[in-house]
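so my prof wants the structure for this chain in the tokens format not the other one, which i didnt know existed until like an hour ago. anyway here's the sequence
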Amino acid sequence: MRIDPRLLFLMRRAFEAKDERFGGINARFLDIGCADGSFINAVLASGKSGVEIDGVDVPSRWLKAASIGAGCRLYVQDLQKGIGEMEPGKYHIATMWEVVEHIENVHQFLRNASELLVPGGVALLSTPNLLSLSRFVKGQRWVGTSEPDHKYLFDAKSLKMVLSRTGFSEIDVRGFFLPSKGPSFDPWNRLLSMSPGGGMLFARALKG
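here's what i got, hopefully its the right format
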């Protein structure tokens, strides 16, 4: 199974958050907008100990329930409308990879996502960066504007604002230039993320 290297990059960031915040316990992950289960399956294939993972998504052309690894709970729930049968305060880490740009009611979506986290739980998000260099180079071919299902686009300041206004704290937002590269490029990614022009906007925030 070939795994998108960008997902591997994001998985490393998620494991860093787990080890830093919940290193001594069995941490429960929730992949929000899990689609075909690519991230869930990457986590399962990693063999990382002390991690359980579930997924949630809405019915769509992206959701492929049969592709999601065995042993994971899949919830079909629109978090803009509520958490449904999902248990509040259950998860330590919530991941939302390339999701928020598709959401009409981002504020309610993030408030409900927060409700699913334990106190001090970590929300991790990625989304196209409105101020990325690639946007100015590619013009109308840039993925942020060429994807017809995108509702809103964010830069670091606007994403930090919406997270703050939906109850998150200790928010860190940065743009990554080379997420498709391997682990040896992680130090370069951290260094380059001090510039605002990275194509992948990445946010980490704690439940307040």
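also thought this was worth mentioning. The chain has seven helices and seven strands.
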